[in-house]
Amino acid sequence: MKNYTKILNKLWTEKDTTPATTINPPVYKGSTVLFNNYGDMLKAGNHSYEGITYGTDRLPTQRQFEETMRQLEGAAITRIFQSGISAIQTALLTFTKSGDHILVCDNAYGPGQRFCKQILKKFGVSFTLIPPNVGADIEQYIKPETVLILLESPGSITFEIQDIPVISAIAAAKNIVTVLDNTWATPLYMKPFALGVDVSIHSVTKYISGYSDVLAGTVSVNEKYAQTFDRFYKQMEIYTPGEECSLALRGLHSLATRLEQHEQSALTIAQWLETLPLIDTVIHPALPSHPEHHLWQRDFTGSSGLFAFTFKKDYTPTELAACIDSLELFGLGYSWGGYKSLLTAGVIKRTIPSRYENKVIIRLNIGLEACNDLIEDLENGFHNLS
Ligand SMILES: *Cc1c(COP(=O)(O)O)cnc(C)c1O
Hints:
This protein is α/β, with parallel strands linked by helices. It folds into 2 domains: 57-250, 3-Layer(aba) Sandwich (Aspartate Aminotransferase, domain 2); 255-382, Aspartate Aminotransferase, domain 1, CATH 3.90.1150. The protein has helices spanning 4-13, 38-45, 60-73, 84-94, 110-120, 164-173, 186-189, 223-236, 242-274, 293-299, 317-324, 371-382, and strands spanning 77-81, 101-105, 126-130, 146-152, 177-181, 199-203, 217-221, 279-283, 306-311, 331-332, 342-347, 360-365. Strands 1-7-6-5-4-2-3 form a 7-stranded mixed sheet, sandwiched between helices. Strands 8-9-12-11-10 form a 5-stranded mixed sheet, with helices on one face. Bound molecules: pyridoxal-5'-phosphate (PLP). Pyridoxal-5'-phosphate (PLP) binds at residues 83-85, 109, 152, 156, 181, 183, 203, 205, 215, 217, 335. Pyridoxal-5'-phosphate binds at residues 83-85, 109, 152, 156, 181, 183, 203, 205, 215, 217, 335.
């Protein structure tokens, strides 16, 4: 059956296959994109071709997700990455060069900080860690060679909030690029560009995709730096598979509804925890007891389902294990933003001592399970602590 290649060939030469309009757009997956004719190929060669030239030139599924995110964020340009950390790394590489200095909030995502320490340093870019609740005092850390400030507000373990409008205004006056990791609030609960930020980053892995089965990230950039970023992204030829873009796009359809539930359950559980005698601090920006609650009220329109707490007593790892391992609904694992409730616990070692220095921080990702069941589960777990 040698002529079966002709049958296969007909699949893409035949234009009359019956079209179907599915609710979700088709998923484009591909390296090669075929030109209609040699003339188009020649145009592509001298960069005058309007169409898509190759898989890394961003296929339609990728472009659809990016355009939706761009509009949600109010950005000039949005690009997708294979992970949130890849988005952070590329944003940092875009706006720095040898001899530059950057400022990094001490509560920023750990692997991002390690990238500064181990990779950027190799290329002659130095960095200084700044307090996670920094505001106007950022002035004292800025050097003549400072070109970028990396913020994360609230931080995803200790939840300090930065005074974004004040920092952005100071930075803009000195042409310093402000980069904000906005993963906790999602594009729905905080609008970084309205607060003067230049670059907004999301780990799409979290709430946006929502089901703990996608790794992706986005970088969105304002008009001022859009062209610089666009060129860098093109040069890097980053490819995010169509399936991941499609799942991320699908996640956006239920994001608002999911977030409402995450928010409500997390607040209910946080308020309940505050009433318990064994709890020391509940660390949740939407609680009036949070040190930067006023900034959250001013700059955010909602809260998500990730928060933390500390115990009054310093339990031993064995005591904590008895409590944590007895939980039935909370999984133990990294990442967050999905429908399943998760827990992480540990002591955070910071360069600048945190408010919770030497305390075990229990972080909860409140999922979409029934809130009462989650409370009951935690209550049962706490019975193992004395
Ligand atoms: C998880 C996370 C990231 C990294 O995202 P990945 O997609 O897991 O690489 C970045 N920033 C914050 C705040 C995160 O929680």
